[in-house]
Amino acid sequence: MGENKDCVKIIPLGGFDKIGMNMTLIETKDNIIVIDCGTSFPPNNMPGIATSIPDVTYLKDNINKLKGIVLTHGHEDHIGALPYIIGDLKVPIYGTPLTIELVEDKFREFGITGVKTKAIKLGNTIVVGDFKIEFIRTNHSIPDSAMLAIYTHEGIIVHTGDFKIDMAPIIGDTVDLARLSALGTKGVLAVLSDSTNAMRKGISKSEQEVHDQLDTFFHIYKENRLIIVTFASNMDRVQQIIKLGEKYDRKVALEGSTMLEVFSAARKIGYLNFSEDTLVDVRDIDKYDDDQIIFLTTGNHGEPVQCIAGIASGNNDRMRIKKNDVVLFSSIAIHGNEVDFNKTLNSLEEQGAVVEFQDIHATGHACAGELKLLYTLLKPKFVIPAHGEYRYRREAKRIAASIGIPSENILLIQNGDIVELSSEECKVNGHISLNDILIDGFEKKEINLKVMEERKRLSQSGVIILEICIDKKTGRYASDLRITSRGFSEQQANSEKIQKLKAVVLNKLSSFVSQGVKDERVSKGICRVAEDYIRQKYNKEPIVVALITEVML
Questions:
Q1: Which residues pair with 119 in a beta bridge?
Q2: What residues does 428 pair with on adjacent strands?
Q3: Among 56, 214, 312, 399, which is disulfide-ready with 347 (CB 3.0 to 4.6 Å)?
Q4: Are residues 301 and 175 in the same domain?
Q5: pLDDT the model gives residue 301
Q6: 455 found inside a domain
Q7: How far is C-alpha 456 from the geometric centre of its chain's CA atoms?
């Protein structure tokens, strides 16, 4: 199919195959804007990897067209990749006040300077390149979340970001339904909609309902020490817990680096309301009786049991579980973390704690009823379900079709698909290839796939080290060949097969000596024959390292 240069292109670089790593490009002939720039949740099967980020090669190749990055909210899966890619892109970043505060905190942490950021109030409109972008108030599990109405020459594109419709939020106001309705009356060409909870019927629970249930538990367990686990960025929940602490004359100690960062940013902007003396340092919790303290803890967004897991296993110096402690999980296990979640629950109860996790959490994502209302208000010509695995997006398609949007106007696309959008049609016309970009957890920088393969081999088969000294003058052996293994079973390491490996390696060394070869071909050659022998005899692929030392005799 030929390219329509006058159309608007929508190209997702992430977020259309799983929860996380959200990044979508909106492109016209001479302009590109980026919507969100997130990381994925940490993978479980990649040793030493903290996260992965979108592949921005396409943006680097079209850098002259890139005008800015526009953010819907401040969760890691929407802003977390910025420190890793902004050095290559060097464009302004736009978002609501809390979102920009979190981005700037992140840049300070990474030592990044010189990036232009601009805080936009909800309800305001900005111009970026040839796009006009309106920030529309919505609800989510972090304050200052926005939907975006993107005005293009072909029509209005609405990007919902992550959203729910909460009629009684704790912080801020409810979704601007009147504005969504007005846009629908004006005419919406396409909507990219949050699909995370499309498979849940009805509507999502309000934060006010969570407040009422927490209040009940505070009353039931008024004599017990309370340990509460929630998501790091859910300031609605944190605000509720602090105010309930004040109601029941309890002090609150907070722990969790990400939560403290978001808390500090929200407090700085004035989104939180509480008495200063309600908060106490975590190091002082032992100074208070059980009925006087709340320990509020969390992990990163996506890891709700990270800190409490450390407490349950006895690895937290400031908090030890004791009999009759009450642990309230005002969170859920993120998909993929269920095993760790259940392990933590068991450990807590084995130590005598009372664990409660029913009815004290509200999702931050719209359920089926809210999606139906969204589509009804906006009346879009085209729908592109976003933010989720295929089956979530497939269900969002069914919901959109149920209110009369033609099935052929609802696209289920993949990361890298090039969607061409005009006033008359919406179709996939091409694809860009995307690579996995992995971030090392210690150095906080990109790591290549070769290193990852080596780590996997080390974890599965260990390492074998070949050491020998060579006379620099004659090229002959100056020592015996020494073979050392780590992570390769002791029995195997000392077996007859290893002695045969020694003979194989020495035979190869002899051939190099006889040919007068002294360069890196020697180490590469003996590693290769050792790897082939071990693969054949053990069906394993350890890392083989050759240490050849030249000596003067």
A1: 95
A2: 419
A3: 312
A4: no
A5: 47
A6: yes
A7: 22
Mean pLDDT of the chain: 89
- SS3 assignment for 392-437: HHHHHHHHHHHCCCCHHHECCCCCCEEEEECCCCEEEEEECCCCCE
Contacts 24+ apart (CB under 8 A), 314-320: 318/255, 318/282, 318/283, 318/285, 319/227, 319/255, 319/282, 319/285, 319/295
Domain boundary (382, 407, 432) is at 432
Report which residue type is found at 179.
Answer: R
Residue after which a domain boundary falls, among 334, 356, 378: 356
H/E stretch holding 147 reads: strand 146-151
Confidence of residue 429 (pLDDT cuts 50, 70, 90): very high
The rounded percent of the chain whose pLDDT value lies above 90 is 61
Give, in order, the Cα–Cα distances in Å from 87 to each of 53, 84, 250, 336: 14, 7, 46, 32
Per-residue pLDDT, averaged over 295-308, amounts to 68
Q: How many helices (H) and strands (E) does the chain have?
A: 16, 25
Q: How far is Cα 341 from Cα 304, in angstroms, rounded to an integer?
A: 9
- pLDDT for residue 413: 97
Please indicate, yes or no, whether residues 245 and 139 belong to a single structural domain of this protein: no
Both 171 and 185 in one domain: the answer is yes
Residue 438 lies in a domain: no
Q: Are 477 and 543 contained in the same domain? A: yes
* One domain, residues 398 and 327: no
pLDDT category, 335, cuts 50, 70, 90?
low
Can you give the residue range of the structural domain that contains 411?
A: 8-202+364-432
Are residues 178 and 283 located together in one domain of the fold? Answer: no
Is the four-CA dihedral 87, 91, 95, 101 of positive or negative sign? positive
Number of Cβ within a 10 Å radius of residue 473: 10
Residue 440 lies in a domain: no
Same structural domain for residues 198 and 212?
A: no
Rounded to an integer, what distance in angstroms lies between the CA atom of residue 263 and that of residue 342? 28
Which DSSP string do the residues of 99-114 spell out, in sequence order?
Answer: HHHHHHHHHHHHT---
Could you read off the pLDDT of 498-552 as tens digits, one per residue?
778 888 888 888 888 788 777 788 888 889 988 898 888 888 888 889 888 877 7
Query: Rounded to whole angstroms, how far apart are CA atoms 298 and 332?
Result: 12
pLDDT at 214: 94
pLDDT of residue 302: 47
Query: pLDDT by residue (tens digit) across 340-388?
Result: 778 888 999 999 999 997 778 899 999 999 999 999 999 999 999 999 8
Order of strands across the sheet that contains 49-53 = 49-53, 437-440, 446-447
Distance CA 267, CA 78 (A): 21
Q: Is this prediction's pTM over 0.70?
A: yes
How confident is residue 330, by pLDDT bands cut at 50, 70 and 90?
confident
Question: CA 503 to CA 366: how far, in whole Å?
Answer: 66
Residues 6+ apart with CB under 8 A from 41: 19, 20, 51, 77, 302, 303, 334, 336
Please count the structural domains in the chain. Answer: 3
Distance CA 121, CA 103 (A): 16
